[in-house]
Amino acid sequence: MAAPEDPRRRRVGLLYDERMCRHATPDGEIHPENPDRIRAIWQKLESEGIPQRCIVLSAKEAEDKYIASVHTQRHVKLIKNISSKKFNSRRLRIASNFNSIYFNKGSSEAASLAAGSLIEVSEKVAKGDLDSAIAIVRPPGHHAEPDEAMGFCLFNNVAIAANFLLNERPELGIRKMLIVDWDVHHGNGTQNMFYKDPRVLFFSVHRFDFGSFYPARDDGSYCMIGEGPGAGYNINVPWEQGQCGDADYMAVWDHVLLPVAESYNPDIIMISAGFDAAVDDPLGGCCITPYGYSLMLKKLMGFAQGKIVMALEGGYNLKSIANSVLACAKVLLEEKPLVGSIEAQPLESTWRVIQEVCHELKTFWPALSVELPQKLLVSCRRPCSIELNLSSSSESTVENDEGASTTLCATNFVDIIEPLSKLNIDEDNHWKAVAPDHIPTKQSSVVLSEECPNAQALMPDKNVDGCTPWRSVLSETEVWYGSYGSNMWNPEFLCYIKGGKVRCLSYGQVEGMNEPCPGSRDKSSPKDVIWKTVPHRLFFARSLTCRWGKGGVAFLHPESNKNDKAYMCMYRITLEQFNDVLLQENSLHQENGRSQGAGTPLLVLSDIGVAAENKSLPLEALKAGCYSNILYLGEEDNLPILTMTCSCSEIDQFRSGELPVSGPSNGYMNTLVRGLVEGKQITREEAIAYINDAATREL
C-alpha cells in the first residue's frame, strides 16, 4: 500500500516538455537562446531528485483566444503559422524584420506550448491544487509586445497567463497580482500590457545603463510609473551599471519591493524568472549567486500565502541557470533551511537608484517615504570582476583582475544578437563590462583662478582658502541646456551627468565614445526633456576628437538665419551641471592639444544676462576648446535656453581651411540618428538626410 502523502509537504508543480526544444536556429547556428538551456535545467533537477518530490505536469498549447487577449490577431496568426510549409521560403526574411528573433519549423508549437504551460500551472496554483509552480519554458516571453516579437520572445507567456486569471477565471478570486521580473533585461512587453491596470503591480529590476542596455528604450526608467488608474502600479528599478550582485538585489528587496508588496497584499505572485543576472552569464554582466536567487524567492513567499508561479525567461550560462533554478526549487519545496551569507556591500549606485525610485513613488506608496539610514548611504564596495566573452570559439577562458580564470558559455554573440549586446564595453580592456562608477579617469588639468590659487578640479563644492562655495549657489538656478549633437541621444547626455561612456555594438562594430566622461558633481537626472527647432545652421567640423576619434563633430552657426532649422533636445538642469557639461565638452579638442578646464565656474548668473543681451558670449577660458561660445536662444517656462558652439572667428577659419571641416564618423552619426528617432522628431530616413545635408552643404 502506498505511503500516505505528508500533509506538511508543499505541493510544487513542475512543468517541462521536450517539444519546446524543437524551437532552434534554422541552420544550426550557435545562439544563446537554445534548447540546451532548458535541458540543462531539467537534467540538474533530475540529478537532485526534484521531479520525484514535485507534481510533474504536461504542457498544453494555448488556445488562440487566450493569446489574443494580450496580442493582436495579426501577431497571433503570424506566430501560429510561421512554422508551416507556406512560410518555408519567407521565414528567414520575416525573422530579419524583428529585433533579435529567429524562426524554424518548431517555433510555432514551442511558442504555443510555452504560453499554454503558464496558463496551466497558474490556474492550478490559483485554484489551490498547487501551492506554487515552476514552468521551465522557452521561448521566453517578457519582451514580446502586443504586435511584435522581440528579444528572443514570441508570445508574452506571463502576460497571457496573468490576463487569463484576471479576466477568464474571475471565480478563482485573483483580484490583485504581483508580477516580479528579475531578468537582467527590462520586461518592456509585460509593462506595456498592464501599464494602465491597477490589478497588476508590475515590478522590474534590470540593467538600464541610462537607457543604453537592451532593450535600450526609455520605458525602463524609474519615471515610468503607470498611467491613469494604473499610476503607481509600475515600478522599475534601473541599475546604472553591471556587476550588481546578491547585496544589491537584497537592498532593493528590503527597501522597495517588500514594503510595497506588504501594502499591496497580492492574491498571487508571478515571477518572470530570468537568470541572466547570474554569475558568469555572458549577456548580463551581473553576479547573483544561486543563494542570492533563493533568498530573493524566499522573501516573496511571505506574501499571497506562498502562491508563486515561476516562469523561465532569460539566462544563458548553462551551469548558472541550472544551479539557480535548483536553488529556487528547493526553496519552494521548503525541505531544507537556506544556507549561505552575503558579505559584500551594495554598490554606491544601488543606493542612488533606490533613492530615486522611492522618491518617484512615495506619493503612491507611503512605505517608500522612509528615509534610508545614513550608514547605508555611505557604504560602498568594489564591484566583482565580471568579463564578457563575445568570441566565436566554442569555449573561452578569460582572466579577471585577480588572475583567476572563468570559463563562459561561448557563442558568436556579436553577429547574432547585436541589440542585446548594447553594454558599456571597453574595447581595449578585453571586452570587460565597464561600470561608470569605477572607470579610471585621467586627472583633468585646470586653470586656477588668481583669487583662489588652491582651487581643485573638478570644481570644489565648499570653501577653498576663502573661495565662494559657488556650487551651492549655482545649484539653485535652473537652465535649459540645448543639445543639437550627440547629446540629443539621452543615454549619451546622461554620461555627462552620471559619468561613464556608452559603447554600442552596431552591425558587429563597436561604436561610441573612446573616452569616458567624469560626469557632474551633481548626478541628478534632468527635471524635464523637451524638443524644439531653432533658426540656426547645423554643420560638422574639426577632424579628430579624443572622445570620438576621427571625424567631425556638430556645431551650430552662431548667427541665426530664418531659412535654417536645427533640431535641439533641451534638458532642464542646474547651472552647476551646465558648467560641468561645458567643461567636459571642451576636453574634446585635440588638434592643438588638450584644453584646460577651470577651477572656478565657467559661467555664472551675470554671464547669462550678458549672453541674453548679445545673443552669445565667448568664454576666454575656453578659447582652446571646441565649444567656447555660449549661445542664448531665448526662454522656455521663464528659464534661459543655453547651448555651446564655436566662435564667429572660427567660422571664418573653417571657411578658409585654416581649421578642418569634415563629416561625422559613422559612430557619431548613428548616435545623432538615435537621438532624433528615439526623441520621436523625425524618421530614421529623414534623420540621415538631415545630417547628410548638414555635412555636405558649404558654410
Task: Explain what this protein looks like in three dimensions.
It catalyses: N(6)-acetyl-L-lysyl-[histone] + H2O = L-lysyl-[histone] + acetate. This is histone deacetylase. Pfam families: Hist_deacetyl (PF00850). With 699 residues, the chain is α/β, with parallel strands linked by helices. It contains 21 helices and 26 strands. The strands form 8 sheets. An 8-stranded parallel beta sheet has the order 2-1-3-8-7-4-5-6, with helices on both faces. α6 packs across α7 (157-168), α10 (290-300) packs parallel to α11 and α20 (666-678) crosses α21. Mean pLDDT is 83; it is low at 379-468, 504-511 and 588-598.
Compile the SSE list and pairings.
Layout: E1 12-15, H1 36-47, H2 50-53, E2 55-57, H3 64-67, H4 73-81, H5 91-96, H6 107-127, E3 132-135, H7 157-168, E4 177-181, H8 188-193, E5 200-207, E6 234-239, H9 246-264, E7 268-273, H10 290-300, E8 308-312, H11 318-333, H12 348-361, H13 374-377, E9 395-399, E10 405-409, H14 413-416, E11 425-426, E12 432-433, E13 446-447, H15 470-474, E14 478-483, H16 490-498, E15 503-506, E16 509-512, E17 529-534, E18 538-541, E19 544-545, E20 549-550, E21 553-556, E22 566-574, H17 575-585, E23 597-598, H18 605-614, E24 616-618, E25 629-636, E26 639-645, H19 648-656, H20 666-678, H21 684-696
Parallel strand pairs: 1-2, 1-3, 3-8, 4-5, 4-7, 5-6, 7-8, 13-23, 14-26
Antiparallel strand pairs: 9-10, 11-12, 14-22, 15-16, 17-22, 18-21, 19-20, 24-25, 25-26
Protein name: histone deacetylase
Catalytic activity: N(6)-acetyl-L-lysyl-[histone] + H2O = L-lysyl-[histone] + acetate
GO molecular function, one term: metal ion binding
